[in-house]
Amino acid sequence: MTTTTEQPTHIAPSVASRDEGGRVRTYEVRTFGCQMNVHDSERMAGALEAAGYQPFVPSDPSGALVAADPDFIRPAHDYADVVVINTCAVRENADNKLYGNLGYLASVKRKHPGMQIAVGGCLAQKDQGVILDRAPWVDVVFGTHNMGSLPQLLERSRHNDEAQVEILESLETFPSTLPAKRDSTFSGWVSISVGCNNTCTFCIVPALRGKEKDRRPGAVLAEIEALVADGAVEVTLLGQNVNTYGVEFGDRHAFGKLLRAAGTIDGLERIRFTSPHPAAFTDDVIAAMAETPSVMPQLHMPLQSGSDRILKEMKRSYRSAKFLGILDRVRAAMPHAAISTDIIVGFPGETEADFEETLRVVREARFAMAFTFQYSPRPGTPAAGMADQVPKAVVQERFERLVSLQNEICFQENMALVGHAAEVLVASSEGRKDANTHRLSGRAADMRLVHFSWPAGEQLPRPGDMVTVTVSDAAPFHLLADHPENLSWPTRRTRAGDAWDRAQAAACGTPVVSPPSVSPTGGVAVSLGMPTRSA
């Protein structure tokens, strides 16, 4: 039974939220890493706003790029008073990205009186005081277990005129108890657990997030109900290993039960979750997915390697046959399920024969999408000290072969959907703007990205509305739906769209077409602007 508190966390107003002249200070949170980090950033933003800070609004004309791309370079005056960087520690380039950003922010801070820089998240939990050694201009360093301390630490740093480092070794309060500044009116993240009990030899996360801590089902369902009451029609359940949910309170079927219970919440149309672990993925979860209409026909199932020998070295307690068997059973229960995965190339000791096994499994699995990574040794993990580290040139060549194969499969699988109908949840930030194409963007039930046409001059569907389209063409990473007669597609107005209207009215009154929300480097930022037209 967990002893981690789930009582709401009160964030007191902070005197540091105003400058010497009484002006409210502004903040921005930059997020690197996984969906868990994105959700954590919403909690950090919520804590800062509860303490009295207000979100930073960049000046035009570069505001759209600033919001979409945290690396975008802009003048020193066009920065928040408080910049929070929520870090990732999964790959080596996370270090490079953090210190690259901090290096530039040092020059900004010299020209921006009173500016504070805070670093949190997994890399902060790992490096702790090392961050101040490498970047002494940082004001606050905090970890994964004490996000709610951020306003206090900023205040203490400002009062004492010295950097504050606070890292807790274990979780005492669930982040879900903190107030949240949600990025979306129509979709929300809901954490069901934090931490991980697995010991994968390549992964640093358990050392930084700690052992698995499960929230009580009633608390999870209450948060979902609150989101739906605010207008959300979609939730994504989050955990390092969602399908071991219940380990703390002794119910190995708790996750399937949670899916079914969430499916009874009136107004909740789409339920997703990420990420499960193949070793613990049971048939009761497959049944719950298939028998709960609001659970979407989509599954992210990390493979990591197709070689049984490498899986053993990784301490992944399944083998390729079991993995493929799970996919077969999911597709038998949900024939139209889109399955995505994670794959690591170049794990220590990987031979050409091992890599060929990965290619074999990829061919058999026919993933709708694969997130492919070149192995990156992380200090503190067993794999970092293993012999037979694969040469970079070999890893790169294998990586390119894998990407080429998977892109071909993605294209074939997407082309097979041409002529089929798809209900698209309209988004505000899924594609680039191109006035010549008159396309908007959103996600189909199976999580595929869809760019769909919309006649110029006609009223646009709102973010959160549902549009039913017919797929007309496809590419490896998206579907296209151009109306043959250049008409608008059938649209179902939703409570989520109404919530977007309310948010617009509260923010600025009359809604306007938003600038693009996808960065030049591929990062996506969520805004509350009108849905973006896309190429």
From TrEMBL:
Pfam families: Radical_SAM (PF04055), UPF0004 (PF00919)
Record's protein name: Unannotated protein
Gene3D superfamilies tied to this protein: Methylthiotransferase, N-terminal domain, tm_1862 like domain
Annotated Radical SAM core domain residues: 182-413
A molecular-function term among this protein's GO annotations: metal ion binding
Stretches for region Disordered: 1-22, 510-535
One Gene Ontology cellular component annotation held by this UniProt entry: cytosol
